[in-house]
């Protein structure tokens, strides 16, 4: 009898988990298709003519019409979008009008730079953001708490592109603490063998310590600028969650038993906000992938953000759609991963 009940319970949990997984996959597909459809319509409202980009400004009328037909722009928008989805299902993102290369290869070349920048900024923001939130919750209303609130306010209020320009002016042009825009100086950028696409790893594998130090000198300033954005969000949301938990009855009981403030914070309160922390970290990382658009443009960082900016100014529809799909897919996947981790780590969600 007990084994039968256990098998029935396992079957229910299995089908429940399978249903949640199927629902997540369907939601992911619907979200990405909706994002592509919205971007596809907006890209066709641009005043830039993609036919002239391919054929040239002095092309004859017959050449213009032939190129327009070859690009499929003489078809209705729903037909064009359906054809794009058909090519997308085969792994074909189209050809960029700017680089004349497949968009998939362009994204494979630029995405490691964005991942490297966003990951380092995420580490910076998580370390300092969690530390500030814990210090603020340790002594609410103190100088540390006011400092955490000030950092959160500045991180949300100051535009990232303005902070980047100010950082370049101060640390590059005046103090010379930063190596400036780009990933490497020209003396190394053409001699380094790109094995992984991550400049820190490739410069380390090259065995040249000067190249590695130069990569760090180029990287630290955009990492700090972009990391301020994530640090502000992590500090504000985690501080609010910690202070909310500190008013619960189990915290009052722990204080009545004589537990110290640090022990209560780290061993009682912090484990109960792990679900919130996981969600905040995932959303912050996804925000960094989006926020890298402006940061990469300011620092001439050759990532997806700069690639997308160039495509937007040139109305390069395949590049715009490919970049949007990549960034949107990362955002949705990270959000889904955060929900799954929260479900596993927090029994209350189950």
UniProtKB/TrEMBL annotation:
CDD domains cross-referenced by the UniProt entry: TM_PBP2
GO molecular-function terms, A-Z: dipeptide transmembrane transporter activity
Keywords, in A-Z order: Cell inner membrane, Cell membrane, Membrane, Transmembrane, Transmembrane helix, Transport
Compartments it resides in: Cell inner membrane; Cell membrane
Highest taxon in the source lineage: Bacteria
Its membrane topology: Multi-pass membrane protein
Segments forming domain ABC transmembrane type-1: 111-338
GO cellular component, one term: plasma membrane
InterPro entries: BPD_transp_1_N, MetI-like, MetI-like_sf
Pfam family, one: BPD_transp_1
Parts of the chain that traverse the membrane: 21-42, 115-138, 150-175, 219-238, 265-286, 319-344
Family: Belongs to the binding-protein-dependent transport system permease family.
Protein name: Putative ABC transporter, inner membrane component
Encoding gene, per UniProt annotation: dppB1
């Amino acid at each position: 009898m007990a084994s039968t009940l256990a098998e029935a319970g396992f079957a229910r949990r299995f089908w429940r988990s399978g249903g949640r997984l199927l629902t997540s996959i369907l939601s992911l597909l619907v979200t990405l298709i909706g994002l592509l459809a919205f971007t596809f319509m907006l890209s066709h409202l641009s005043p830039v003519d993609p036919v002239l980009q391919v054929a040239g400004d002095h092309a004859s009328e017959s050449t213009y019409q032939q190129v327009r037909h070859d690009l499929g722009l003489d078809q209705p928008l729903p037909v064009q979008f359906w054809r794009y989805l058909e090519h997308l299902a085969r792994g074909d993102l189209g050809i960029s009008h700017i680089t004349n290369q497949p968009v998939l290869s362009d994204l494979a070349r630029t995405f490691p730079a964005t991942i490297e920048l966003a990951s380092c900024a995420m580490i910076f923001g998580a370390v300092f953001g969690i530390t500030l939130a814990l210090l603020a919750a340790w002594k609410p209303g103190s100088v540390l708490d006011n400092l955490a609130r000030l950092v959160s306010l500045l991180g949300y209020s100051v535009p990232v592109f303005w902070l980047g320009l100010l950082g370049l002016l101060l640390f590059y042009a005046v103090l010379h603490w930063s190596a400036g825009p780009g990933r490497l100086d020209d003396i190394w950028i053409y001699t380094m063998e790109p094995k992984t696409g991550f400049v820190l790893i490739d410069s380390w594998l090259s065995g040249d310590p000067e190249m590695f130090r130069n990569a760090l000198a180029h990287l630290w300033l955009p990492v700090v600028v972009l990391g301020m954005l994530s640090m502000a969000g992590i500090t504000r949301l985690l501080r609010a969650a910690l202070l909310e938990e500190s008013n619960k009855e189990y915290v009052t009981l722990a204080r009545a038993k004589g537990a110290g403030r640090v022990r209560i914070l780290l061993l009682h309160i912090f484990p109960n906000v792990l679900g919130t922390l996981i969600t905040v970290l995932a959303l912050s990382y996804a925000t960094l992938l989006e926020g890298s658009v402006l940061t990469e443009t300011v620092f001439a960082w050759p990532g997806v953000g700069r690639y997308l900016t160039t495509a937007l100014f040139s109305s390069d529809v395949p590049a715009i759609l490919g970049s949007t799909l990549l960034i949107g897919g990362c955002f949705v996947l990270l959000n889904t991963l955060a929900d799954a981790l929260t479900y596993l780590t927090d029994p209350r969600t189950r």
